[in-house]
Amino acid sequence: MLVRVLFRSFIYVWSTSKGWIVFSIFYSLATGMIPIATLWATKELINETAKFLGGLDNYRIVITLVSVQILLMLSSSLLNLFKKIFDEKVELLLGHNLKGQILKKASNVTMDLYDDPNFFNKLMRIENSTGNRFLSPIKEFFSFLENTISGVTVSIFLLSFHWLLLLVALIPLIPYFFVQLKYGKQRFNLLFNYTPLLRDADITARLITSRNSAKEVKSFGLSNHLFNRWSKKYLQNAQEHLKLSRKQYYSLFGNEGFGLIIYALIIYIILKIINGAGGLTIGDFVAIIQAVQNTQSKSQIASDNFAKILEDRLYLEDFFNFIEETSFNTKNKDKTYYKFPSPLKSSIEIKNLTFKYFNSTKKALDQISFSITPGEKIFIVGENGSGKSTLIKLLLGLYPIQQGDILFDGISIKSINDEELRKNLSVLFQDFVQYPYTIYENIGFGNIEKIDQEELIRLVSRKTGLDEIVNKYPKNYQTYLTKTLYDGEDLSGGQWQKIAFTRALFRNTQLVILDEPTAALDPKKEREVFQHFNDIAKNKTTIYISHRMSAARLADHIIVLKEGKIIEEGTFEELMIKNGDFKEMYELQSSQFKDKEKYVLF
Ligand SMILES: Nc1ncnc2c1ncn2[C@@H]1O[C@H](COP(=O)(O)OP(=O)(O)OP(=O)(O)O)[C@@H](O)[C@H]1O
Ligand SMILES: [Mg+2]
Fold first, then answer.
1. Were 131 and a residue from 63, 95, 341, 516 both cysteine, which residue would form a disulfide, CB within 3.0 to 4.6 Å?
2. CA distance 168 to 292
3. How would residue 129 be classed by pLDDT, with cut points 50, 70 and 90?
4. Do 347 and 307 fall within a single domain?
């Protein structure tokens, strides 16, 4: 498993920058050999200098050895310099590629994952750690290689004096490695368990800083309460981290103490055992001490590297799990799909459609069946929470079908490629997006393939009456609709709704779905929208969801939903004759205007 994850991240990095890998191998080998060379040069230099000071004429040798030492230090600095530049470049590239992968994956998942908090927990974990984490095991691996080479070569040098030296020098390494490994794992577990808490803190902080929520938070005087909530969660997480770090540092301190005892033991071995066996030169003595320190530090770094690789593996597994999660892709890429029938000839048929949201016990839709003939104007009405918006989300293929089916000219939605499907549908969502870009882009996003056709955008805006708003701004369509991203303008709720309405119509598809398109409009604008809509949607199939019952009069077919079920359907006249829920809702609304007595809110 470890090898597989390492190999995969290696392949990733290789595809991002082959040059970096080649350079890193060269760097590890070269810098791995430098300590032993330096050690040898130092030892020779001290011995030769001692002879020189004793009156020997070996001036040239001393100068040569000094030059070798300087050359070694210079090469080491140069290698480090290039490594830093190269590392930074690869980190940036990798950060871009991996974030790109996460964004692509998020674009491909179905909406049901957006209803699962675990999806966001995972997303936060991997978003916060991927860039460096990805490169980290590879870097650690090369560093491991470099330090192992140094460690082994210096160990051989030590062995040439006495095997006990090496054995004793390496003893503190064992507890050190296990401490690093243990705390690495615990850090990952901490991150895993505390991600929901961190997200709570994050979301709470954003409630205070975001423009959308600020007005309500201030008006209700919630700032303090939210601040305290954020602070509590933040500190709770920080304290856990601190507790863990403290434990780890204490353990490492204990380990260092142990290392000092070992050091004393080594000095004893050098002076008593090695010196006792045969005379040591001063150069030998210095070189042995240096070699012991080198062996210890290099093997410690190598063990750090190894423990770190094992820790990084956990983060990488998280990343690969996210990227490979097959339940994300509801539609099989290899399967052949049917084209969306364009134009629709016979019907859209909704058959026994039943749907439950993620982790929900309640059915949002329960055995819904009805059919739409091309060109028909459907009106869907029903209480809040009766399933109207859910139905259109399923029609758009945003959620996988669980039970029942939706058929377009007899072809199941499950056999139609999502892209194909959406090319033929336009939608105005109840909670549409206010893009923080220009008015032009806000409309153009309705049909990204035609976003360059300015005349078309102007034409649709004239038809929906949006041009009236646009013309008031000096920069017209190039006016930015944001106050946070750029210094632009902001619109009223109703004006935004008109933008979203225009965007949906700019898509110009055979099927148009509007979910509460006029909820924010004043009566005059609502009337205008109706007129424009009837004009634009003349030859289209439309599904219109609204609580404004008057709109139902224009529909060919009305569906009344209640608690996920169809309770009535028919034409306006049929439903009025039926004298059921629809008539009651209709009369309740119209009576509010006629009858002062009945118009009581509280
Ligand atoms: N993402 C979701 N996860 C879980 N439950 C959901 C989700 N969206 C909606 N629901 C639930 O599904 C039911 C139907 O919701 P839906 O949004 O379809 O109602 P609606 O008819 O559009 O209501 P409204 O008139 O208020 O817009 C409701 O009980 C709602 O609580
Ligand atoms: Mg709704």
1. 95
2. 10
3. low
4. no
List the domain range (segments joined by +) for residue 94. Answer: 2-325
Closest to 300 in 3D by CA, of 146, 163, 147, 182: 147
Distance between Cα 198 and ligand 1 center (Å): 28
Confidence band, pLDDT 50/70/90 cuts, at residue 225: very high
Q: Is residue 546 within 6 Å of ligand 1 at its C-beta?
A: no
CB 110 less than 6 A from any atom of ligand 1: no
The reply to whether ligand 1 has any atom less than 6 angstroms from the CB of 357 is yes
523 part of a folded domain: no
Mean pLDDT of 47-53: 90
Domains in the chain, number: 2
The answer to whether position 498 is within a domain reads no
Tokens of 535: 């004009």
Q: Is residue 244 part of a domain?
A: yes
Q: Note whether 359 and 317 are same-domain residues.
A: no
Together in a domain, 234 and 300: yes
Q: Is 117 in the pocket of ligand 1 (CB under 6 A)?
A: no
**3-class SS string, 241-272:** HHHHHHHHHHHHHHHHHHHHHHHHHHHHHHHH
Q: Give the tens place of pLDDT for each residue, 512-570.
A: 999 988 877 787 877 777 777 777 778 899 999 988 888 888 889 999 999 999 999 99
Which of 309, 244, 408 minimizes the C-alpha distance to 7?
A: 309
How far does residue 453's CA lie from ligand 2's centre (Å)? 32
- Residue 557 Cβ < 6 Å to ligand 1: no
How far away, in angstroms, is 520 Cα from ligand 2 center?
Answer: 14
Q: Is 430 in the pocket of ligand 1 (CB under 6 A)?
A: yes
Spatial CA neighbour of 481 closest among 428, 442, 430: 442
Q: Same domain for 237 and 184? A: yes
Residues 406, 305 within the same domain? no
Question: Which has more confidence, 419 or 362?
Answer: 362
Residue 9 placed within a domain? yes
Residue 204 CB less than 6 A away from ligand 1: no
Retrieve residue 411's tokens. Answer: 């072809």
Ligand 1 neighbour 361 (Cβ under 6 A): no
Point out the ligand 1 atom lying closest to the alpha carbon of residue 430. 27
Indicate whether residue 386 lines ligand 1 (CB < 6 A): yes
Last residue of a domain, one of 325, 350, 383: 325
486 C-alpha to ligand 2 centroid (Å) = 32
CATH number reported for the structural domain that contains residue 8 in this entry: 1.20.1560.10
CB 138 within 8 A of CB 13: yes
3-state secondary structure of 387: coil
Are 286 and 166 members of one domain? Answer: yes
Domain's final residue, options 273, 297, 325: 325
Query: pLDDT tens for residues 455-496?
Result: 999 999 998 889 989 999 999 999 999 888 888 998 998 899
pLDDT of residue 601: 41
Continuous H helices in 405-554: 418-423, 439-444, 454-464, 467-470, 493-506, 523-536
Residue 572: the pLDDT is 92
**Does residue 353 sit in the same domain as residue 319?**
no
Q: Whose CA is nearest to atom 27 of ligand 1?
A: 384
pLDDT at 270 over 90: no
pLDDT computed for residue 600 by the predictor: 40
Same domain membership, residue 230 and residue 368 = no
CATH number at residue 565: 3.40.50.300
